[in-house]
Every structure is written in C-alpha cells, then in structure tokens.
Amino acid sequence: MNWFKTILHEIFGLFVDDASFALAILLWLVLVRVLTHLGIPTSWSAIILFAGLALILCESTTRYAKPRAIKK
Amino acid sequence: MDTGWAHISTSVIASFLASLVECVEALTVVLAVGSVRGWRSTLIGSATAIVVLLAIISTLGTALTHIPLRILQLTVGTLLLLFGLRWLRKAILRSAGLIALHDEQAAFAKNTKAMRQLTNNPTAWDKIAFAAAFNITMLEGTEVVFIVIAIGAGHPGMLLPASLGAVAALLVVTALGLILHRPLARVPENTLKFIVGVLLSAFGTFWVGEGMGLPWPAADWSILALIAAYLAIAIALVPICRSRSQSVSSNIRTLRTPQ
Fold this sequence. Notes:
The complex is a heterodimer of chains A (72) and B (259). Chain A contains 3 helices and no strands. Chain A is mainly α. In chain A, α2 (19-38) packs antiparallel against α3 (42-71). By secondary structure, chain B is mainly α. Chain B is 80% helix and 0% strand. Chain B has helices at 5-37, 39-64, 69-95, 104-117, 127-153, 159-180, 189-211, 222-256. Chain B is flat. The N and C termini of chain B lie far apart (68 Å).
C-alpha cells in the first residue's frame, strides 16, 4: 500500500506546494463569497474575483524572487 | 447557457496540453524501466494503471452527475484554481530562472541508473518493472484524471471533449515513444506548463464565479478574456521576477564589496 500513500501525497502536492499561496487563494474566495452576500454591485463581483487572484499571483511570485536571490 | 465554441475548444486544448506534459513525464520513466528491465512487465504495468485510471474516470464521471451543478462548479473551480495557479506560478518562476527547468534526459539517466542498481536478472515476470511502470503511470495519470474531471465537470457535456483531449495526448506520446525509443527531451515542457497554467487558472476562475452565481460580463466568452488577462500578467511577471532577483543580488554584491 506504499504506492497508495505516495499517490495521496502526490494528490495533495497537486494543489499545495506553497502553503501561504494556497491559503491566500482560499481566503480570497471566502472573502468574495461573503462580500457578494453583503451586497457589492454584482456586475463587478466577477471582475473583483479575478483581480484578487491576479494580485495574489503577483505578490507570491515577486515575494519568491526576493528571498531566492538573497540565498545566492 | 449553451455549451459554446469558447468552452469546447479551450477544454480540449487545456486537457490535451496538460495531459501531454504528464504523459511525457511518465514516458521518460517507462522508457527507462523498459530499456533496463525488459518491456513485457513494464508495458503490462502501464496498461494496468491505465485501466484503473479509466475505471476511476468512468466511476467519478457518473457520480458527479448527481451533484448539483453550482456546488460542483464551486468545488471543481476551487481545486482547479489551486492547481492551475500553482502551475502558473512555478512556470513563471522557471521562466525567470528562479527554479530549475525539468530535464527529461536527466530524469531518464537517473531512472535508468536506479533500475540497473536493482540488479537481480529480470525474469519473464519482473515484479520490479511492473511496479515501477504501474506507479509512475498511476502518479502522472492521477493528475490527468483530475485535470479531465476538473475541466469537464464544470459544464454539462464537457467531460467528453476533455477526455478526448487527454486520449489524444496519450496517443501522441505513445506513438512518439514507440517511434523514437527515447525521452521527449525537446518538448518545451515549461512553455506547455505556462500555457496550461494560464488555461486552468482561467477555467478555475470562471467556474468559481459561476458557482458563486456571479454574472460574467460576456458570459461564456469571458473565458477567453480571462485567458488573455492571465497570459498578459504571467508574461509581464517573468522579467519583473528576473530583474527583482538580479537587483537584490547586485545590491548584496555592492554591500559586500569594500568601498
């Protein structure tokens, strides 16, 4: 059953390799869900959802670029 | 909302390219195992894993039809976002030179060496070859199954096009493997991962929006706008990450150099 454990580990690794990045995505999705319930204009909600995800991607990649260089 | 051209074509392309990457990685190991330990047990191992994976797809595909579409879109979209944005992030960092590129030749050499070290003359039925081929096909195949289901489950009638994309990738890689008998080192893996990351992120964002009941400005066509937007952002991030890391490096060098 070792292969089964490996596959489970591999499946988790499909979604998470940087915990803070994955957590930020999940928190943003929850926040958008809550905000839409509170009544943000619905025509903008989908664009706000995308904008937040794009910002998380930008922050995570640029943050990674900095500490990697310091290690050199 | 009808199943439109934007959905079908992007589903097939995303599924094909994502599966292509996974199949290339599996082929490298299967070739290494087969060339050292013999082909019979290796091919039986891979074929068994493919049968198991097909059974999983058909079981899950049937089960998913019983889940309400909104819940399915939200769940699948969230997983797709985690998966797609992770791929895209890594592809950006690889393109910026911050993470090493995946090297199929090196992977082939490493696996060939590992198989040779296991010695004991391979017999007609080689358990090691079977297990190694089964494991790698299951590992990479699980990713393909997830991608197919994630792309196909978010919209009615999309599972078939997504499956066809994956099957086409499997056939292409199998044919190339049979013809060339060596790893597909020239496949631009990171470029593919970059494109697939963009496509899966766009799909994930769209499904999550649909699952939350958010109206997209251009309905189905918003997927193409999301693809363009993610692509533009990802392309812009590559030089930004590269220059950011270089500027920090040069600042450190300046600090270390006696004035």
